[in-house]
Amino acid sequence: MDKKSLKNNILTFFLFLVASALFLAFCTHCSFLYPFCEQVDALCFHTVGKAILHGKVLYRDIYEHKGLYLYLIYALGYLIDRNRFIGVYLMEVLFSAGFMYYSYRIMRLFLENELFCKVSVVLSSVILFTSVNFQTGGYAEEYCCVFFAWILYLVLRYFRTREIEMIPAGDAVMIGVLSAVLFWIKYTLLGITAGIVVYLVIYYLSRKRGFELLRAAGLFLVGFFAGSLPALLYFCLNHAFADLWHVYFYNLLVEYSEETASVTGLSNLLTYFGYGDYAFFLFTDAFLMAVFIICAFSKSFSGIGKSATNALCAMFLGSILFLAYGIIYYCCYQVIVVYSFLCFGWIYLYLIGEEILKEGLSAVCRKASDFLRRYGVSIGIGLGIIAAFLFAIDALDNGYRMILMVIYTLILVATGEWIKEKTAKNTKLERYFLRYLPHALLYVGLHLYETKLEIALIYFSPDLWRCGIVIAVLVLLIFDMAEDGDALKERIRKIRIREGVVLPLVLLASTVYCYFFSGSASFVLAPMESTVQYKLGEYIKASGIEDPDIIGYDSIDVGLYAYLGIDPKEKYFGYYQLRIDEIIAEKERYMREGIPDYIFSVESLSEERLYNNYHLATSAQLPINAKNPVGVAILLYERNDIQPRHK
Question: What Cα–Cα distance (Å) separates residue 152 from each residue in 120, 175, 227, 395?
């Protein structure tokens, strides 16, 4: 790499670093704009990372079932800032910038337009950070995105260039190292790379190159061992291999699989995509992914390269199959890693744009318009019937919402066509204004309805309404461009785009969007006194206990350990999805013997349930926002012999 390319790459990474810092300032609760982190998973990872730094051994002394490297990331964040979560925020910024950088490098393999690639990556990151999948950040999947995108880049670079007969040795080793990092963060995510592994095996064997396949596999294993060495040394030096096997492998592979068997499978993936509160966010990335899939198999876009396309599709389909098999209904954060494929949707959109410039916008849109006018209603009815069928067999919860969306999307399209007919004598500008005004007002009104009034009704989903509006507007735009597209195309040709102007405007607009659509705008710059951690933490401080013993009954972590600056005393300090008899029995012993000083819970517990050792001391409500429209309350139970100290 020459000095010019190196300088350009550094500047590009710095751009993404700035973009990531701006967007995450509003989209993650670890940001300096929020008084305290409210994301229970991030709080739990932070607690465990801090405990590891203070000498506790993972799995042996403190129980949590993610991988060691995830907790080390949070431990590093704690070292940067011991009082708040600024260090964790900086780690999120760094990892997200890396994800954006490798997404950009992937796009540059196929496109020469640097500005388009940069803008596309920025917009893709906004889609990710404001999606319901991201959920105010902090999940393990967020940190895995950069490694997954890096692997994608190394594989596609080989299939794109094909200057040598096999994947370079350095790349094969690096893929092994990156896979090891994924393995020691959350090894179930390695299933997402299964598609490319299968494709590589078929690719080499079909060309009778078994030796090259074995060589690549050997180099991969060398890299995997190198990436795993720090973790292996950690558990070896702490004599915790038995605990590693029991918690990280046996419990997850056996106990967890049996526990979640009734709530996994394809039907849950369908349920997830049909859930009203997720639909609008999923539409944006699903649209890009649909463009990618359709175009990937189209002969019109063969410039991507057959081998690269096949490898790409294998990885994407492998990811979808993995999610279809393993997703749990409410664990939508697992989908975060699939956002690595968003950049390919932009690639094909760019190629479509090139095709439009060759053939003419009107000609391309006329084909799409004729298709929609001829089959649009039939497609809508067909989707409604499929949703009704899946709903009837309990494979798609809230299927009635999908049926309603199909109905009012068709109504919105028909309304737009009716307005166009009635305004035929108006000027073109007036016609367009009146045609799209009702849709714009409805869209804005629904956003105000949800985020300003903070009302959530069970049988009405604003997100699905917005999704229907976007689909209707896209259909109407295709109809309009079929008539006026060529005139618009000529105007676009005359526009001179400058990177120094476009990028700042895109960053500014995206940051504003993140503020309004992060779901936590009302919580920005809120006082510390408004947080659950302050209210419950100050109550505990008033007890006079310098180092209180606290456990969670049905919540992972609510931030009391971080606020009070303490570590958990008990191995099983929180609530786990793994309902293992050993864990349940041990936590029952804690309560029966009155070991913890305090117990926090979401569920209301009777004194009998707590063996008459505890009483309800106080409670605090989590902030009401788009992520928490109900306003869940955290209850704090105090051991009876501590009560007099508050009087």
Answer: 17, 9, 18, 33
106 and 247 both lie in a single domain = yes
Same domain, 277 and 366: no
Q: Classify residue 164 by burial, with Cβ atoms within 10 Å: 0-12, 13-18, 19+.
A: exposed
pLDDT at 452: 47
Structural domain includes residue 501: no
pLDDT tens readout for residues 596-614 = 999 999 888 888 889 999 9
Shared-domain flag, residues 288 and 178: yes
Q: 309, 330, 350 — which closes off a domain?
A: 350
Q: Is 505 within a domain? A: no
- When pLDDT is averaged across residues 463-474 and rounded to a whole number, the result is 71
CB 166 within 8 A of CB 216: yes
Distance CA 86, CA 69 (A): 19
Same domain, 206 and 305: yes
76 neighbors 123 (Cβ within 8 angstroms): no
In a domain, 390, yes or no: yes
- How far apart are alpha carbons 226 and 333 in whole angstroms? 29
Average of pLDDT values for 76-89? Answer: 92
Q: What is the DSSP string of 335-358?
A: GGGGGGGHHHHHHHHHHHHHHHHH
Maximum CA pair distance of the chain?
Answer: 83
Per-residue tokens: 233: 């040394």
Residue 281 reports pLDDT greater than 50: no
Look at the chain and report how many structural domains it folds into: 3
Q: Which residues lie below 8 Å from residue 363, measured CB to CB, with a gap of 6+?
A: 485
**The model scores a pTM over 0.90:** no
Range of the domain at 403: 360-494
pLDDT of residue 226: 96
The helix/strand/coil state of 193 is helix
Q: Is 2 exposed, middle or buried (0-12, 13-18, 19+ CB in 10 A)?
A: exposed
Neighbouring residues of 634: CB distance < 8 A, sequence distance ≥ 6: 532, 536, 555, 558, 600, 601, 602, 619, 620, 621, 622
Pick from 45, 13, 17: which is nearest to 29 by CA?
45
Closest by CA to 627, choosing from 522, 513, 557, is 522
Instruction: Using pLDDT thresholds of 50, 70 and 90, give the confidence band for residue 330.
Output: very low
Q: How many residues does the chain have?
A: 647
Residues 259 and 407 in one domain: no
CA atoms within 13 A on the CB side of 508: 6
Question: In whole angstroms, what is the distance from residue 294 CA to residue 308 CA?
Answer: 15
**112: buried, middle or exposed (CB in 10 Å: 19+, 13-18, 0-12)?**
exposed
